[in-house]
Amino acid sequence: MPDARERVEELRSEAEAAIAAAADPRSLEELRVRYLGRRAELTSILRGIGELPPGERGAVGSAANEARRALEELLGRRRSELEGAELERELEADAVDVTLPGSPVVPSGSRNLLIRMLREIEDVFVGLGYRVMEGPEVELDYYNFTALNHPPGHPARMAQDTFYVDPESLDPELLLAPTPAEPGGAASGPPLPPGPEDVVLRTHTSPMQVRAMEAESPPILIVVPGRCYRSDPFDATHSPIFHQVEGLAVAEGITLADLKGTLDEFARAIFGPERRTRFRPGFFPFTEPSVEVDVSCFRCGGSGELPDGSRDPLCKGIGWIEILGSGMVDPNVFGFVRARGYDPERLQGFAFGMGIERIAMLKHGVPDLRKFFDNDVRVLEQFR
To answer: Are 227 and 243 in contact (CB under 8 A)?
Structure first.
């Protein structure tokens, strides 16, 4: 076999050039068969090594094996390159934008209107320097009534008739709270006596007034949102389960004027910049004086009439809408937390409470409170 070594080098160079120019995996496979297959010329040279003169066998065999190894390695690299490029083209051709909506479009969820209203109210008061606190929904009678100036037998308890819980079903630690018999009494004594009358589902978030003052020294500025319970009927304006936001501000020099300014700012933030508030005398056992708060009607502008001259049904023609109750903290309430620095001779404060359902109904024109609980998706879709 004349010039076998030279022919091996020629085949190697020819194959390397062809492999580098291969455009796809199929062409590359054809080149593999052509240059390294069983009938390939390089394979024939390797099979014919024994027919060469003894002096040429080593050089030709070494060159042929080296060429075969180099071409196999080159084929492997080129195959990986071509397959990778082909995969990229397929991915680009079949690309799907996963950020596009489905077909048909699947509606996304949204917060319940009550939760959105609660967060909006919280944002207003956080902007005024208040902190948001939360408290237990299963509450001791002491915090829910007694420490808020509702002593046993007080008629105001009847207006907040509630659901009672058997203390034996609760963590015993919950029943170890002190029960002073009167404002300023010693904060010590045995656990509450057993009986379902001692533990209730809270009727308002106001118990956190006393809990917060027990935990912190004055001054204090807090709002307390949460779920409350009363044995009310379930109709267009009442529910045995409702949501409330309670507010408390205590410091030296606080007056009723500060309460008025705070609630003016709240009303403008929630109902519009032109809103005004007015105070009417009211009664709450834990505030003195107590006031009911109205906001100027945001539908008729406070005139009581709609543009067509008819009576505004929202404010019933009076131009004002009741939104919450408030007042100056009764000194008797401070008496229960005097040991924490709440001296009624030195400090004053105000408190307010509002129903979130009522605020949401007024602002968004919801005619029936039960709409918040009916689980009707159409209601949620209106307030995305």
So the answer is: yes
